[in-house]
UniProtKB/TrEMBL annotation:
Highest taxon of the lineage: Eukaryota
GO molecular function, one term: ATPase activator activity
Family: Belongs to the AHA1 family.
PANTHER family for this protein: AHA1 DOMAIN-CONTAINING PROTEIN (PTHR13009:SF8), HEAT SHOCK PROTEIN 90 HSP90 CO-CHAPERONE AHA-1 (PTHR13009)
Protein known as: Activator of Hsp90 ATPase AHSA1-like N-terminal domain-containing protein
Record-annotated Activator of Hsp90 ATPase AHSA1-like N-terminal domain positions: 30-163
CC per GO annotation: cytosol
Designated gene of the protein: PLEST002711
Any Pfam family hit: AHSA1
Bias (Low complexity): 186-219, 225-237
Disordered: annotated segments: 186-237
Gene Ontology biological process terms in this record: protein folding
Organism (species): Pleodorina starrii
Amino acid sequence: MAKFDEADPRWLVKDMGEAGRNVNNWHWTERDCTEWAKQRLGEVLAGIQLTQPPAAVRTTSLESMSGDAFLNIRKNKLIPSYDLEVRVGWAGELTDGEGNVVGSATGKLHLPHIGDDNHDEDPEIRIVCDTNSSEAERLKAVVHKDGKRPLLDAVHRFVAELRAGGPALTEAAEATAAAAGAETAANGGANGASASGQDGANGAAAAGGAQPKLSSGDAAKARAAKASSSSGGSGGKSISITAKFHCRPADIYECFTVEGRVCVFTQSRATVQATAPGGAFSWYGGSITGEFLELSAPHRIVMRWRFNTWEDGCFSKVVIDISEPEHGNTVVQILQTEVPPADKFGNEDTADVTERGWQSQVLQRIRQVFGYGV
């Protein structure tokens, strides 16, 4: 019992400093992303070639953007809220068979609504001409028929970045680039390759395992395993994983094909070129690399996939099937084949390490970061 005129310390509110911060973004926070959205739209919508000669049209610049964009976070889940109206300038030229310009026109592309309620749909595009000339009408008709898709792809790219964290992605990329540049300068560029592999150290270590020095016996074991592991197919192992998420198939598909989303859940540098089969990808600063063999949005992804601890030239095959047996409940089935029985250091737990990496460093992180947990 506290003495008279003395407060019981159990009931006093203390300044806990860092210990009392918003741990894991549990409490509701809101960030205004409107200025970032305007800047980013200006970057992704400018200079897009919509159609080719003899009726060539390209976008010029972002004319205007109205509305607002916010990112809310509650219980570590991103909740985007945005409603934007956008106008983009366009300019076009008509050429004859010899490439001579015979007419030109300008105008605007009006997107009246880019919102969180239709993020998985193509927004409406209205084509406006600055004049009523025959050249303008001809160019307008060409854009209406063949020129919308490049613009829509750019809009979807912007929306995916905004929904994955918006300005936080830009800040993280700038910080990573600055840190990498400082480290390269400090090391005189000698350790640049190894520095990239350290990005996201905790995730990469759990996903790819350690790289110890080899004793003479281990080196012999590694050389013996090389013949069977480098070819991948013969002697390779298989991994099968089934996971469930509270989201739509398109949400999971974007987690593997949108660079911003990969950067968010891996918390490290990543590159993803998923516009067409043959595009390369790199996760965890190069610890995981490969290329896309098949892209069937939003239900199937096939990849050529490897750890940097595997023998050079050794790749496995990953097939990701995404289905929605019930509305809002998505099932992800991962089948990975041709996993080598050992890595280049002689460790023979390659399949186990790979499966644990999928579970803890990919699937579980997607649940936690994007709030798709079951």
